[in-house]
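Dear Dr. K.,

Following up on our conversation at the group meeting, I've run the structure prediction for MOB kinase activator 1B from Sciurus vulgaris. I'm pasting the input sequence below exactly as I used it, so you can double-check it against your construct before we proceed with anything downstream. Let me know if the numbering doesn't match what you have in your notebook.
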Amino acid sequence: LLRSSKTFKPKKNIPEGSHQYELLKHAEATLGSGNLRMAVMLPEGEDLNEWVAVNTVDFFNQINMLYGTITNFCTEESCPVMSKPIKCSAPKYIDYLMTWVQDQLDDETLFPSKIGVPFPKNFMSVAKTILKRLFRVYAHIYHQHFDPVIQLQEEAHLNTSFKHFIFFVQEFNLIDRRELSPKDMFLKCLGRPTYEVQSTDIGLSRAQNNIRITTQGTYWCML
Ligand SMILES: [Zn+2]
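The predicted structure tokens came back this morning:
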């Protein structure tokens, strides 16, 4: 599935043979069948925290790889400002963000990998913050680096990954609807009011499977 092996940060491994590894394999198998709605659902009898943990690690790994393929294009010069409230370049901000996520995933008290070790009470709120921040990286790639993504033929991979991510956060209400509106998110995060969002149903309608993002009349992606 993944053509590139270059990642931005080291890949976060889920140990083979563990229950979480089985959950990951289950998700991959369902994804392979092409049914993303099914792939995000909590498997019967499984713990929601553990399911969210496994998928959060997986999304981190996916974004890590996707951003890893375009880091050469994301520079102080190309992306001097990430967004209005954050006064630093995108590469600096994304580096900080991904390191922060990595630290959370590596924290055994937050993301216990051993069977029988309970998840902390604040697990869901930490997971929500992680997913909200990872969304910003998708948004940045779509907005600023979609051309190299096409050139590198990573477009289908990016779209599938993004769609999977959106379906997952929708399924468990993990990101506030307002945060997920591509219009608001992209305008707020990226500061370039060039988006015309044809369907703002992202995060709104579970029956709506199509997400279209256009900019200045240019067809960007249909997931
Ligand atoms: Zn950039």
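Two things stood out to me. The beta strands are 195-196, 212-215, 218-222. Residues 184-223 have pLDDT under 50 and may be disordered.

Best regards,
J.T.
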